[in-house]
Design goal:
This protein has 171 residues and is an all-alpha fold. 54% of the residues lie in helices and 0% in strands. The protein contains seven helices and no strands.
């Protein structure tokens, strides 16, 4: 297990709980990507973004394999294209003064350049997942959706940093 890189695998139960909350508040699309599929992609995007932002090396191929197991009806190419759609929407959010999302020039998630597709479902789900995963430094969320989510996730490599930050803020 030496030099083991983080994976999205540990988030599966949290993502499933998150999906249940979203399904109570959003209408399932008649065709295209489902709420569950879009949520998995939004979580994956946040995971990759946070790793890039925090300079943590991950194995993209390994994470795509895990995601492919969770989304058996989607190809690797469609998963990557949808992730680029999420990058496009996230880049729009990054330009909003209510959001503080790390980006460098036109890059918002290394490895996933923006590919625009105006899918409404991404716009419904991504802002909540961004807050949930700690991508946005200024929490801006849909309170109704947020209340339906049972817990808050943070990348496991940031836990010590957040504990220290909390201890400093309490002094």
């Amino acid at each position: 297990m030496k030099n083991e890189k983080p994976t999205i695998e540990g988030y599966q139960e949290t993502i499933q709980q998150f999906i249940q909350g979203l399904k109570n508040e959003l209408t399932e699309p008649a065709n295209g990507w489902s709420i569950a599929e879009t949520t998995y992609i939004c979580f994956y995007w946040c995971f990759v973004h946070n790793a890039w932002r925090d300079n943590v090396k991950i194995n993209k191929a390994q994470n795509l394999r895990i995601l492919g197991e969770w989304l058996p009806n989607r190809t690797k190419g469609s998963i990557e294209a949808k992730t680029m759609n999420v990058s496009s929407y996230a880049f729009k959010l990054a330009k909003d003064p209510n959001y503080t999302i790390h980006h460098e020039k036109e890059i918002i998630c290394k490895g996933y350049k923006s590919l625009s597709n105006g899918a409404k479902l991404i716009g419904d789900i991504l802002p909540v997942v961004i807050d949930f995963m700690g991508v946005n430094k200024q929490m801006q969320y849909n309170a109704k959706l947020w209340e339906s989510i049972p817990c808050r996730a943070v990348p496991n490599w940031r836990i010590e940093e957040l504990i220290q930050e909390h201890a400093t803020n309490e002094k």
